[in-house]
Design a protein that fits this description.
By secondary structure, the protein is an alpha/beta fold. Helix content is 54%, strand content 10%. Among the domains are: 3-82, Gyrase A, domain 2; 112-260 and 302-365, Rossmann fold (3-Layer(aba) Sandwich). The strands form four sheets. A four-stranded parallel β-sheet has the order 5-4-9-10, sandwiched between helices. α14 (380-398) crosses α15 (405-422). It is flat and about 80 Å long. Mean pLDDT is 92; it is low at 369-374.
Length: 560
């Protein structure tokens, strides 16, 4: 039942567009105020009357029915109370029948979304700074698929640039095939850091590095064998992290993939008169749009990030015909995306309007910031292993007889890291704390996972249940049900705003409401109708929390 649509149809205000009226209707922060509300301030200018009078007139003329039991005017708001019993019975039945599909939609049918995220650098460690792009992008992929979209998850690998020439120089001077095969990414990181230390003393090394990168570009066999070895080792190592985080990709086409696709873009820019030469470099002047010039080619003719990103955008449009193309990249790159989106627009690519930079804040540890060049990095694998170990110790302390402790610790530890990165608005900077994310109290993943386990325990003790159609609800029962009913809208809003934290916050709200209900209401009570009703609520909460966590890439556990 779409109550907002029903209210819109019943009001049928002349001079007010129905789609606008539908969008004006909101859910009050407190269910005591009502289940839906229309702020009449938004109608004042259209209807040329005060909000208080509009609300009063509408309340006086509104006729209650089987869906809307009451309508009242309060300080310029028109508040509606639905027939809560009908709503509760219908919703619980819908959730239990839908199961894993509760909250899903077909709104995206026939539409394609490309999501560029994680985009790790070859031969560099997968550190905690990559956490946000990885889990935000993965959650958005899952959310959009849940809503019926065809999603193309893209890992735009950083596998192009002079750093690979630097690595070859470092490899030849201080490493070997045996050392790289044994040390893997740690060995590559070691020689990369050593290169930068040594290059400060001998700047001629940078010339040597540029020469080796040119050899890679020109197809030199030995240089490309080393480049491909570095790439293979990196992907094998980071795949372990992706598996822990439940992250998958549909494409690993990185920067090098577009090496032969940049020239047509540059030629088109020249044909359309957009290229200017400045100090030998090719640029697109964006001064009239309040931006510095977008660099297309260096003075030596080599490409830059913008060139490669434009080639990638054209390829993605031609290959996937996307309706939206999202770039989950830190806010420090705001200018880069504004520039290259604007250049595509100036080229006449009408689809440039469908490209979105999903910016996010930075992640740091309480110990401070990180730099790959200086070797001051905190590996994401180490963070995950630490949280898994800490989770195992908590489980050992609280429930030593629990079966599958290792599996549960993995779900709790990795879930804590993901949830911790997604619990606040994505644009906020995050200082990661092991103790905070692993707390079993408050706004954390273990708290939500524990709530799911609690639901499972109740269900296993109470059986299948039965009829509850004649039940009388109390306030705590209805509070849980009212939150359950919001899940579909939360998922849609999180997609529209590219904000997975809305799902995270929802999971916290639902878990909190359920635990309050659980503490204050005996589920396995003597009255069979009440017992069945409360059991149905518990089943619906388990389904909904499981679906919410799944969208975030987090596993639930049956016991904790």
């Amino acid at each position: 039942m779409d109550y907002k649509k029903h209210i819109t149809e019943k009001l049928n205000l002349q001079g007010v567009d129905k789609s606008d009226l539908y969008s004006f209707i909101e859910i009050p922060p407190n269910t005591d105020m009502g289940d839906f509300a229309l702020p009449c301030f938004k109608l004042s200018k259209i209807l040329r009357s005060s909000p208080v009078k509009i609300a009063s007139d509408l309340a006086n003329s509104f006729v209650a029915d089987e869906y809307i039991s009451e309508c009242s005017a309060v300080n310029g708001y028109l508040n509606f109370k639905i027939n809560r019993k009908n709503f509760a019975l219908s919703l619980l039945n819908d959730i239990i029948c839908a199961g894993n599909d509760y909250g899903a939609s077909d709104m995206g049918n026939g539409k394609t979304i490309c999501i560029d995220f994680s985009s790790i650098n070859i031969a560099k460690p997968f550190h905690i700074g990559h956490l946000s792009t990885t889990v935000i992008g993965s959650a958005l992929c899952k959310i959009f698929r849940f809503l019926g979209y065809k999603v193309v998850g893209i890992n735009h690998l950083g596998d192009y640039g002079t750093q690979f020439g630097k690595l070859i120089v470092a490899f030849k001077r201080w490493s070997s095939f045996e050392a790289v095969q044994e040390g893997r990414l740690k060995e590559l990181t070691r020689i990369y850091v050593k290169y930068h230390d040594e290059a400060k003393l001998d700047p001629s090394m940078d010339d040597e590095a540029r020469r080796y990168f040119k050899l890679i570009e020109d197809g030199d066999k030995e240089s490309n064998e080393l480049f491909n070895l570095f790439k293979k080792i990196t992907l094998e190592e980071v795949d372990k992290i992706y598996k822990l985080l439940n992250v998958t990709f549909d494409s690993y086409a990185g920067e090098s993939f577009y090496n032969d696709k940049m020239a047509p873009v540059v030629d088109e820019l020249k044909e359309k008169g957009l290229i200017k030469v400045s100090d030998g470099a090719s640029i697109v002047d964006l001064e009239e749009y309040g931006m510095p010039p977008c660099l297309i080619l260096k003075s030596d003719g080599s490409s830059l990030y913008a060139t490669r990103d434009m080639a990638a955008a054209v390829y993605r449009k031609n290959t996937y015909d996307f309706d939206k193309c999202l770039y989950v990249v830190a806010y420090q790159q705001n200018l880069h995306f504004k520039q290259f989106f604007k250049v595509l627009e100036l080229m006449g690519k009408e689809w440039a309007k469908d490209m979105v930079h999903v910016a996010y804040g930075m992640v740091s540890l309480e110990s401070g910031s990180m730099s790959t060049r200086s070797g001051n990095v905190v590996l994401l694998e180490d963070v995950l292993n630490t949280t898994i170990d800490k989770a195992y110790k908590v489980i050992e302390d609280k429930n030593p007889e629990l079966a599958d402790k290792e599996k549960i610790a993995k779900a709790v530890g990795t879930g804590a890291v993901i949830f911790g990165a997604l619990c606040n608005n994505k644009i906020k900077d995050i200082t990661f704390s092991y103790d905070r994310v692993l707390s079993f109290e408050g706004e954390t993943c273990p708290y939500v996972q524990y709530t799911v386990a609690r639901c499972n325990s109740v269900i296993s003790k109470c059986g299948n249940g039965g009829d509850y159609s004649n039940v009388d609800m109390n306030a705590e029962e209805y509070e849980v049900i009212s939150i359950l009913g919001k899940f579909g809208d939360v998922v849609k809003n999180s997609a529209e705003k590219y904000e997975p934290s809305l799902v995270t916050r929802y999971a916290i709200d639902l878990a909190t409401a359920f635990n309050k209900f659980y503490i204050g209401n005996k589920i396995a009570c003597d009255d069979p109708t009440v017992k069945n009703f409360r059991l149905a609520i518990t089943k619906a909460v388990k389904i909904t929390l499981t679906n919410a966590l799944t969208l975030l890439g987090i596993e639930t556990v049956e016991q904790m």
